[in-house]
User: Which sequence fits this backbone?
């Protein structure tokens, strides 16, 4: 059974970001779903950035995220991008920890005008981390949590999860080789150039 971890950066209680994360969890009956609320680890995340020391509970959350078969990530939209808490959590992960990980991108915001942040902010971040991002992202504005928008939101959640399941079906998580991981130091390149010039 695939393990899907839902990471959300909702700050308030209640929060629309947590509500969206809960809807994803409710729509995953066939998978082993676990929710990681970054709000519960906010101080520990800052401490880890400042000191390099990871508290035990935060370490457990990191282990759950990096050991998952797939992720659903949900962030509120602040200043047309992801929140600082959300970014800080992914900044403290070891390089390459999410390489090859299927990731479904989701976000919330006060208005649908922010919906493009999934493609111009979230997708580049997880592409840089080497994750395999699902094509369909889910953005939920305030009006999507009630009235006619709620049904459309459930449909978008279902469609995106079908794509995530397709990434998981019958496959083992692949960690692609990063061709830029082993970089020759610039000083070494300069020495080679100098020695080549000297021999001419």
Assistant:
């Amino acid at each position: 059974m695939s393990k899907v971890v839902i990471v959300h950066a909702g700050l308030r209680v209640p929060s629309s970001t947590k509500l969206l994360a809960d809807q994803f969890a409710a729509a995953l009956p066939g998978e082993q779903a676990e929710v990681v609320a970054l709000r519960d680890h906010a101080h520990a995340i800052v401490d880890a950035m400042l000191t390099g020391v990871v508290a035990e509970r935060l370490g457990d959350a990191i282990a759950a995220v990096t050991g998952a078969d797939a992720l659903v990530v949900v962030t509120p939209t602040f200043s047309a991008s992801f929140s600082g808490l959300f970014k800080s959590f992914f900044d403290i992960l070891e390089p390459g920890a999410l390489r090859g990980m299927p990731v479904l991108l989701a976000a919330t915001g006060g208005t649908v005008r922010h919906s493009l942040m999934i493609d111009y902010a979230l997708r580049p971040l997880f592409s840089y981390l080497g994750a395999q991002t699902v094509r369909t992202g889910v953005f939920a504005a305030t009006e999507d949590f009630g009235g006619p928008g709620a049904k459309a939101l459930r449909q978008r959640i279902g469609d995106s999860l079908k794509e995530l399941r397709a990434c998981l079906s019958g496959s083992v998580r692949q960690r692609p080789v990063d061709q830029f991981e082993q970089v020759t130091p610039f000083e070494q390149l300069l020495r080679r150039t100098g020695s080549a010039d000297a021999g001419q």
Confidence is low (pLDDT under 50) at residues 196-200. Strands lie at 3-8, 32-37, 70-78, 81-82, 102-109, 132-133, 138-141. DSSP finds seven helices and seven strands in the chain. The first strand starts at residue 3 and ends at 8.
